[in-house]
Design brief:
The protein is α/β, with parallel strands linked by helices and 424 residues long. Helix content is 39%, strand content 14%. The structure holds pyridoxal-5'-phosphate. The site of pyridoxal-5'-phosphate (PLP) has 15 residues, from α4.
């Protein structure tokens, strides 16, 4: 028995499923989780001393790779001054200034502790501001695990084959309307059905929780005009895409402005952080300025802010950061695609910037339904093969691969070599 297996045996006794987030379970690929002890750059080590090239990157935050010296130093320095005060600190001001200067249209921002909290709060602000209740989301988009968002919510639920979630009263989701990603008519039909009642449309600008599904040309701009026409707000859930596609996230990358954006993952540098913000008039409804209540004991925590600030500073001060990362990723995913095509393996490779995903299907994957045509048995084979070669992928067909600045040319080539062997 390996150390990871022994740890898992202990874990399942006291932790539901042995994991603190279902996406970490290896059930769908017929394995048990590897327990990670250490990370550095693009590498991970597990409790048995196995070394991996990591393409999960903690599900997005580690865009600079693991244990980046600037981030670690900032965390150490902040920690020595105390871990939490529950009072205002300068780093929160710096963080807000940095986000507002990097992100188009961002005038005010509130820090929270997770992406889930960011979305939950942004939706509350949108409802408070518009005085409307209904919300349109897209099937296969994940917006955290708050009750109202657990409708056709992508990866974790797709992998487990759970249709929605238990424990969510019908009343909590009755105002959540589902449209089809990349389908212009389906959202418009909902506006026709509920005139004057829709507070907001929330969307992952790149669907990154049903595998990876990029927006079709014009989809986001069309959502913008649909919202304007109907007096509804447009919320970009940029928890993955924020500071990932570009410094200004999907708004900059696609040139479409949202009214509110939500953040998480990268902005915490690996610490538990989320944020939501946008137009000043909308954010002014949030307490203590306005009457939409939202609070947090540890929000804007000094150590978490130090980590996030250090990471965002590297991203914003490295002039060609995104050109380099995205260029490297383009070449990598093009070769990934070519290897599978040359071997005659039926697949669809979707990729945007440093995010990518292979679906084992003949379909061109543009929405949730297409994603579900993927052969998950074939995925499990591929996953196990790659793991065996030291390539650490997300243990689910319905998750993206994350590239970081720390992925070296040599390690990307090693990964492609493993894929070539798999293809044979
Ligand atoms: C991860 C994610 C969330 C939830 O963030 P947590 O920090 O896990 O609560 C919300 N939206 C999107 C798009 C995400 O990828």
């Amino acid at each position: 028995m390996t150390n990871s297996e022994m740890l898992f045996e202990r874990a399942v006794r006291h932790i539901p499923g042995g994991v603190n987030s279902p996406v970490r379970a290896f059930g769908s690929v017929g394995m048990t989780p590897r327990f990670i002890t250490r990370g550095k750059g693009d590498r991970l080590w597990d409790a048995d001393g196995n070394e991996y090239i990591d393409f999960v990157g903690s599900w997005g935050p580690m865009i600079l790779g693991h244990a980046h010296p600037a981030v670690l130093e900032a965390v150490n320095k902040a920690a020595r001054d105390g871990l939490s005060f529950g009072a205002a600190t300068e780093r929160e001001v710096q963080m807000a200034e940095l986000i507002c200067s990097a992100v188009p249209g961002m005038e005010m921002v509130r820090m929270v502790n997770s992406g889930t909290e960011a979305v939950m709060s942004a939706v509350r602000a949108a409802r408070g501001f518009t005085g409307r209740d209904k919300l349109i989301k897209f099937s296969g988009c994940y917006h955290g695990h708050s009750d109202a968002m657990l409708v056709k919510a992508g990866s974790g639920l797709m992998t487990q084959g759970i249709p929605g979630s238990g424990g969510v009263p019908e009343g909590s989701t009755k105002d959540t309307l589902s449209a089809v990603y990349n389908d212009l008519e389906s959202a418009e039909a909902l506006f026709d059905m509920y005139p004057g009642q829709i507070a907001a449309v929330i969307v992952e600008p790149v669907g990154a929780n049903m595998g990876l599904v990029p927006p079709k040309d014009g989809f986001l701009a069309w959502l913008r005009s649909l919202c304007d026409k109907n007096g509804a707000l447009l919320i970009f859930d940029e928890v993955i895409t924020g500071f990932r596609l570009a410094l200004g996230g999907a708004q900059e990358y696609y040139g479409v402005k949202a009214d509110l954006c939500t953040y998480g993952k990268i902005i915490g540098g690996g610490m538990p952080v989320g944020a939501y913000g946008g137009r000043r008039d909308i954010m002014s409804v949030v307490a203590p300025l306005g009457r939409v209540y939202q609070a947090g004991t540890l929000s804007g925590n000094p150590v978490a802010m130090a980590a996030g600030l250090a990471q965002l500073t590297v991203l914003s001060e490295t002039g060609d950061f995104y050109e380099k990362l995205n260029g490297k990723s383009d070449a990598f995913f093009a070769e990934y695609d070519r290897i599978l095509s040359d071997a005659g393996i039926g697949h669809c490779l979707n990729h945007t910037a440093s995010l990518g995903c292979v679906f084992f299907t003949e379909k061109k994957v543009a929405d949730y339904e297409d994603a579900q045509t993927s052969d998950t048995e074939r995925f499990a084979q591929y996953f196990r093969f790659m793991m065996d070669k030291g390539i650490y992928l997300a243990p689910s067909q319905f998750e993206a691969m994350f590239l970081s600045a720390a992925h070296t040319a040599e390690d990307l080539e090693k990964t492609l070599d493993a894929l070539r062997e798999f293809a044979r």
